[in-house]
Write a structure and sequence with these properties.
Blueprint: H1 26-41, E1 46-48, E2 58-62, E3 67-79, E4 82-86, E5 96-100, E6 103-109, E7 115-121, H2 122-135
Length: 145
């Protein structure tokens, strides 16, 4: 089994655009499990695959009321505006005020490979957007003036 570690800026994998997942197989389910373990180990609330060195469209999140695992997450609709300080496991000790839509609708494939749509606001909306940014190679540092 591969030993994963949290990749930290300026690791080049954090700037790569990730490739889509064709199908959610046992391999992706294993990656979701490993990502959730890493996220929780480092007391995060979200994690994207590039943060463990894998350039694939996979994210996880858990705000304490159950984990969310998404392959190929896509912002389908955004609404409103909100500013909040964000941190990132890949940029330890740094906090950046980031303007983001307050409410989102996100589509993707869950850990069973089923198409899902998540309509949410507040912190979960922010976390999903933050992790989707990672899949595009975008970091919170890019929001600095």
């Amino acid at each position: 089994m591969t030993a994963f570690k949290i990749r930290e800026y300026p690791d080049p994998v954090l700037r790569k655009k990730c490739v889509p997942v064709e199908d959610v197989t046992e391999k992706e389910r294993h990656l979701f499990e490993q990502m959730l373990l890493m996220m929780r180990r480092f007391k995060g609330i979200g994690l994207a695959a590039p943060q463990i060195g894998i350039s694939r469209n996979l994210i996880v999140a858990d705000l304490g009321d159950g984990s969310i695992c998404l392959a190929n997450p896509t912002l389908l609709k955004i609404h409103g505006a909100d500013t909040m300080e964000e941190g990132c496991l890949s940029i330890p000790g740094v906090r950046v005020a980031v303007d983001r839509p307050a409410e989102v609708i996100v589509g993707g494939l869950n850990e069973k490979g089923k198409s899902v749509v998540i309509e949410t606001g507040g912190l979960l909306a922010r976390v999903l957007q933050h992790e989707i940014d990672h899949l595009e190679g975008k970091l919170i540092l890019d929001y600095l003036n």
